[in-house]
């Protein structure tokens, strides 16, 4: 079974509606994967306050709202699993996107400490360069593709299914003693 609910995760009312619809349809939430994000590559001194707010509201506040709403339900059931998708940008520094993603890493650690006693695990995945709709502009130019992949020891970008494999691992009992961690999936980019 599946359920589609269009949601702006930067709006609490939308998130509350989403969670209630899922609860009504399925009776509970076992796993939350926060994966919504927007990207802005504008340098910091050229970044407008509105652009800053859009990134922070979606890429950090949205994760907070989803974790908060779903976390309450998981605490009631005394079990759950939260997986936050961050980015290697969280570890490299940069403008609003990197700052939001670094916030997700620390949100993950804080929630793992706070929710662990309720049998709720909270982890993150930090993909490196990967082909998605959000990043396809980086891959359309052969020169840019070559420059990016030259910095990756494995010599290529990640495929989406390679990130999904890590999410499946974190969602499974095979990772039952892992919480508060960020697994970097970057082909060695940060090595």
Automatic annotation (TrEMBL):
Q: Family, per the entry?
A: Belongs to the short-chain dehydrogenases/reductases (SDR) family.
User: Which GO molecular function entries does the Swiss-Prot or TrEMBL record give?
Assistant: oxidoreductase activity, acting on the CH-OH group of donors, NAD or NADP as acceptor
One Pfam family this chain carries? adh_short_C2
Q: Which residues form the signal peptide?
A: none
Which PANTHER family does this entry report, sorted A to Z? SHORT-CHAIN DEHYDROGENASES/REDUCTASES FAMILY MEMBER
Q: Protein name, please?
A: SDR family oxidoreductase
Supply the Gene3D superfamilies for this chain.
NAD(P)-binding Rossmann-like Domain (3.40.50.720)
């Amino acid at each position: 079974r599946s359920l589609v609910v269009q949601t702006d995760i930067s709006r609490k009312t939308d998130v509350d509606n989403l969670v209630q619809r899922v609860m009504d349809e399925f009776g509970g939430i076992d796993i939350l994967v926060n994966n919504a994000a927007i990207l802005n590559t504008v340098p910091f001194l050229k970044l407008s306050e509105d652009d800053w707010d859009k990134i922070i509201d979606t890429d950090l506040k949205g994760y907070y709202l989803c974790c908060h709403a779903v976390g309450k339900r998981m605490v009631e059931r005394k079990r759950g699993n939260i997986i936050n998708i961050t980015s290697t940008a969280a570890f490299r520094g940069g403008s609003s996107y990197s700052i939001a993603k670094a916030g997700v890493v620390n949100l993950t650690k804080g929630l793992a400490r706070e929710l662990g006693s309720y049998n709720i695990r909270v982890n993150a995945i930090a993909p490196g360069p990967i082909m998605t709709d959000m990043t396809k502009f980086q891959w359309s130019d052969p020169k840019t593709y070559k420059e990016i992949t030259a910095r990756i020891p494995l010599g290529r970008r990640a495929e989406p299914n390679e990130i999904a494999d890590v999410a499946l691992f974190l969602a499974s009992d095979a990772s039952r003693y892992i919480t508060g961690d960020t697994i970097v999936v970057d082909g060695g980019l940060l090595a």
